[in-house]
């Protein structure tokens, strides 16, 4: 294979721990009640269009987009709207959600639920974008940016490359890997749809070479299509970051503070690509997704297909039940995921995994002074100086942190992972980003 | 040899003279007149340089106050919270003005969700910064409005006036507070408020900022305001308003009668520096006890007698 491609700056290689690799995707039973939060995407939360007591079918629209950068939401089950209330999200804050009591599983008539592969594309680019928008698709790798917005580059800009993100660089997670193995052909059709929508001639599927079976399968499938290639990549975290993937595959560098389309690239995750296929070819809105449930103490790490709104505790039960020795449950992967305040929180469009950590793994080590080893600077994929930024933010010098480009931080956590003094670098960086964001907003208001 | 020395001395001498003359004219032309009163005012200020007045340091305050006094003949909007009325009278004296006394203020912490009242459901590990934790999660006890207990307010205080109580996990304000307001700005949850110190330092306030429906608020914290409205009804002075399930007492209207404190079912309303009330005799209304108490409580001053009355009326109602 020769020298494998990867991004140049920084990066780490944490233990992969892909415990659920090779586990076929199992479909989880529909629960008795689902909680569908209205803020599932980056940008404005969606606005409910149903009210208490309404009967809904699976796939029926229950919330309209709340702004330009926002997405629609559809009922993941059939039943009755029990209430619209403030419900705890994963951070413990209460946000609006539609709670639906399940009754049977009656789908909207226009949804094609069969497994037959449809390859013929009879849609114009505008129609494809419209369908993606109607289906409420957002970036399913975790960033949850509304997909249709990404498909409409700002005026004057255009893409020449579509990158399909099959990297799955987060340790433990295997949902995308399994999806490529089981739904490879659908993902290829999805890729063609996205290519048509973006009017690009070239698409590259980036896959890290710790998934040789996926690389083999996708390469075979892509060989039959014009313009689609598969690029095996060296295993390195955070290669799944948009800017890192673009650098790894095309060698282009997205300038600070700019969008990938600036260098002619659009990146979509494989999960999103599959959802696009289903939305356009099968009329199926985004109402379910594959979630990896994993952890070293878990008896049965799994890849599960679950309806949006299913409480996380159902997933844990399906994967063998909550182990005695659980110290922390994380929504997402170990690097970029967030600890859950309760297991009652529902699966949302951006939930890629649930990770159960053992008590012994889940605590931080005491912080000691910085020994100036410069490891954090070496691993930062954005070329930042985490030690400096965290210090500035600790001292409250947010204007200086802004000048040092704190907003470029992608919160990958490589710096904190690698710091031998166990300094909570990322915590301070997040604080800095938060304050600088407020500064910028205050400035633009003036 | 000799004449070289002489020439140098003469040239340099002339150069110096010419420069001195130029400098003299420039200096007199661009002379900045500085009101000598600024120095006087600055000397009267406490030199805390805390910024509580809204100006960057005492000097800036002195400059602006002097300017305002000479231009508008008023000190409206100028107040040094650290020096208080005493210093402000001095400043006004220097500037030849008269000003009204302001009621002294103090910081109050409007959260009572201690470890006991709002037991932890999750555990926080991370940097000890309320601003960070606020952006990250709701709080250990689950209240998304309550104190995070990580001490941003303590760090902001220049006067050593606010400290964390390790037993409750809540900050406590001491008498050293100058009402500079630094902690108010530092708290990401707007828990701290500057309120009037009140007569004999007595004050009553709602020690809760939870705006959720009562049933949800009480689930996370048993001393949360549930917005039941009892206090609003019982208040004779219209001092209490309830907005989004949260009660607020206007300190300008409150007459410290303590009626609201008694009716609050969740003990959200706090009274500070009042004489301890007689223990409520509810379960065993024995004659002896009630007869004894008024005698024992003869010493207290006017204010407490009002409260006594309210206790008595409450009893007679029963
Ligand atoms: S978290 Fe931010 S600063 Fe740290 S390595 Fe990642 S991009 Fe760099
Ligand atoms: S407690 Fe608050 S208001 Fe009082 S002196 Fe300290 S920072 Fe200023
Ligand atoms: S009062 Fe505010 S700043 Fe002080 S510890 Fe509580 S949350 Fe933090
Ligand atoms: S009586 Fe207590 S709980 Fe009821 S509104 Fe007043 S402060 Fe809140």
Structure in words:
The complex is a heterodimer of chains A (446) and B (318). Chain A has 446 residues and is of the alpha/beta class. Chain A has 13 helices and 17 strands. In chain A, the strands form four sheets. Chain A has a six-stranded mixed sheet, with helices on both faces. In chain A, helix 1 (125-134) crosses helix 4 and helix 4 crosses helix 7 (270-282). The longest helix of chain A has 21 residues, at 425-445. Chain A is globular. Chain A starts with 25 loop residues before the first strand and ends with a helix. In chain B, helix 2 packs across helix 3 (58-72) and helix 2 (36-44) packs antiparallel against helix 4. Chain B is of the alpha+beta class and 318 residues long. In chain B, 39% of the residues lie in helices and 11% in strands. Chain B has helices at 2-29, 36-44, 58-72, 84-94, 130-136, 152-156, 182-186, 214-220, 230-234, 259-263, 287-296, 302-317, and strands spanning 105-109, 162-165, 170-173, 192-196, 203-206, 240-243, 246-249, 269-272. In chain B, the strands form four sheets. In chain B, strands 1-4 form a two-stranded antiparallel sheet. Chain B has a two-stranded antiparallel sheet with strand order 2-3. In chain B, strands 5-8 form a two-stranded antiparallel sheet. Chains A and B meet through helix 13 of A and helix 5 of B. The complex binds iron/sulfur cluster (SF4) (4 copies). One iron/sulfur cluster (SF4) is lined by residues 379-382, 384, 386, 409-415, 426, 429 of chain A. One iron/sulfur cluster (SF4) binds at residues 107, 156-157, 159, 161-162, 173, 177-183 of chain B.
